[in-house]
Design goal:
By secondary structure, this protein is mainly alpha-helical. It is built from 9 helices and 2 strands. The model is unreliable at 135-150 (pLDDT under 50).
């Protein structure tokens, strides 16, 4: 299996299921309604909806970086944007952003996956390094994980 095929597979597993770390993002979000997504049970914590918007933002930024159009950093108002579409629309946007990113990964060459991107926060980064961070996210530790909601 090529490095990019491995990355795409791990990204899909982290998103749809059979992830090494436990429940995937979509498994954790399954059954979460708009009220639960907007609830803020911990006053200084992000809501489920805010976290999903954040995931969409960073999947879009990863896609931009693959196209050579990424930025060194996102300003806070773009990293954690205020406002969001209706919950069902946001979930559709999340799925679409994920599918665009996964498709773009399949279109890359393995050689390109190891080329450095422009420095981000003073560190050299490759796509392979970023994908390791994406796929090692553990949704079961998110504040709204199924374990914590029960």
């Amino acid at each position: 299996m090529s490095e990019l095929a491995r990355i795409a597979d791990q990204l899909q597993r982290a998103y749809r299921g059979e992830a090494w770390h436990g429940p995937s993002i979509r498994e954790v979000l399954d059954g979460v309604d708009a009220d639960a997504a907007s609830a803020r049970p911990v006053s200084n914590a992000h809501t489920i909806k805010e976290l999903v918007v954040h995931v969409v933002v960073w999947e879009q930024e990863a896609l931009a970086r693959l196209a050579g159009k990424g930025r060194d950093d996102l300003p806070p108002e773009e990293d954690w944007p205020a406002g969001a579409p209706a919950w069902a629309d946001l979930l559709d946007e999340l799925d679409a952003a994920h599918e665009r990113l996964t498709s773009a990964i399949y279109e890359c060459s393995d050689e390109g996956s190891m080329k450095p991107w422009p420095e981000v926060q003073g560190r050299s980064t490759t796509f392979s390094m970023v994908s390791s961070n994406i796929t090692s996210t553990t949704p079961d530790r998110w504040p709204f994980s199924r374990k914590r909601l029960q």
